[in-house]
TrEMBL record:
This is Aminotransferase class V domain-containing protein. The lineage of its organism: Bacteria, Bacillati, Actinomycetota, Actinomycetes, Pseudonocardiales. It holds the Pfam family Aminotran_5. Its cofactor is pyridoxal 5'-phosphate. It comes from Amycolatopsis rifamycinica. The keyword Transmembrane helix does not apply. One of its GO terms (biological process) is antibiotic biosynthetic process. Keywords: Antibiotic biosynthesis, Pyridoxal phosphate. The keyword Flavoprotein does not apply. Signal peptide: none annotated. Residues 28-373 form the Aminotransferase class V domain.
Length: 385
């Protein structure tokens, strides 16, 4: 049943690295991916080392591990290793980045109308004036409208969620970067969903995200990266305390790296990144795309539901909209959980200026098969009665 999906051995190999599903169908990678045995073992190993040597000595002893992790992460993000810093989550990374970015209260920033709601709130909390950019019906940035707008104005920065969390939309990142580069507008990308799921171009002023989604690292580890051109303008503030007291940190971005941190989780993310690169990012992304297409075809044909995106939309996110506006999606999800199918309900707060209705979201990783998708479709039929 898996012949139609590419790299079947890649999927089975990915599954073998993890706890066998034992009648649990995990379709929620966009929330939190499943960590491997090796990732969890590395976390436990470092915690044991901290218990023996103390946290600081234990951290210093694995400095080369973090250097390699930054290099692997940078390769996925389009940045050099020395431009990458670790934080606790995508949210803390963005708040810390905004606190340090050379903008003043009252400055105007732009963001697509479909952008992640909490990110828009963070921009407002920083005292910035947010102007929303035009998008199409699915939430993709209108590049022609952006170019027209750039001819008449220039924001302090443009923020964009590279891949939407509530549906299968990859923003036109390259075109956006090209348009903004001509006007020297820095672009900051939220790559929480994009990293691991899509190839990312170089050229952003900064990116940030979390390791727990398609990279399948532990929870509690985020990251940010800032281009060399923009690092001199950074002004680290709390919680990056005593930033001048740490020797050897000549890169401003590294002074944004939190010191009191889940270091064992960072060691675990290093293993997850190694596993990801060993299996080939391009092959992983190709299989994710194929699973997404198959999932939209299979699940989108369940009576009472339709796919929110075209079958050939990019990536592995499969969002369904109920035919009935009165459908209780939370109840449907609860019923699916009772059947051991794990998925999410995505409310309009995720994109408050664009979403008009709640969606049911499935987000498989490469270990999912066509048989799995068929079983989930059967469970959805039961949950929808």
């Amino acid at each position: 049943m898996d012949e139609a999906l590419p790299y079947a051995e890649l999927g089975s190999g990915w599954a073998s690295l993890r706890v066998q599903k034992q009648k649990v169908w995990h379709m929620d990678t966009a929330a939190c991916g499943r960590t491997s045995h090796a990732v969890r073992a590395r976390v436990a190993e470092h915690l044991a080392q901290e218990a023996e040597e103390g946290g600081y000595v234990a951290e210093a002893s694995i400095a080369p591990v973090f250097t390699n992790a930054r290099a692997r992460l940078g390769a996925l993000l389009g940045f050099a290793a020395e431009d990458v810093a670790f934080t606790e989550s995508a949210s803390t990374a963005f708040v810390q980045l905004l606190a340090s970015w050379p903008v003043e209260k009252g400055d105007t920033v732009w963001a697509p109308r479909s952008d992640w709601g909490p990110s828009l709130a963070a921009l407002v909390d920083r005292g910035l004036r947010v102007e929303l950019l035009d998008v199409d019906s699915r939430g993709a940035l209108d590049i022609e409208a952006l170019e027209t707008r750039l001819r008449h104005g220039r924001p302090a920065l443009l923020h964009m969620t590279a891949a939407l969390s509530h549906r299968a939309v990859l923003q036109p990142i390259t075109e956006c970067l090209m348009a903004c580069s001509s006007r020297e507008v820095p672009v900051i990308l939220d790559v929480a969903q994009a990293a691991g799921q899509f190839a990312l171009p170089e050229g952003a002023a900064a990116v940030y995200g979390t390791g727990r989604k398609f990279l399948c690292g532990p929870r509690g580890v985020g990251y940010l990266a800032v281009s060399k051109a923009w690092q001199p303008g950074l002004h680290p503030r709390a919680p990056a305390l005593a930033v001048e007291a740490w020797p050897g940190e000549d890169r401003s971005v590294r002074r944004l790296e939190s010191r009191e941190a889940f270091v064992a989780g960072r060691a675990g993310l290093a293993v997850a990144l190694e596993e990801f690169h060993q299996r080939g990012p391009d092959r992983i992304r190709t299989r994710l795309d194929a699973i997404g297409r198959a999932g939209r075809r299979v699940l989108g044909n369940v009576p009472g539901w339709s796919a929110a995106d075209p079958v050939d939309a990019p990536g592995a996110i499969i969002s369904l909209q109920a035919d009935s506006a009165d459908a209780d999606l939370a109840a449907v999800r609860a019923d699916l959980l009772r059947q051991k199918v794990i998925c999410s309900v995505t409310g309009t707060e995720r994109a408050p200026h664009h979403m008009t209705r709640t969606l049911l979201r499935f987000s498989p990783h490469i270990d999912v098969t066509l048989d799995d998708l068929g079983y989930v479709a059967d469970c959805l039929k039961i949950a929808s009665r």
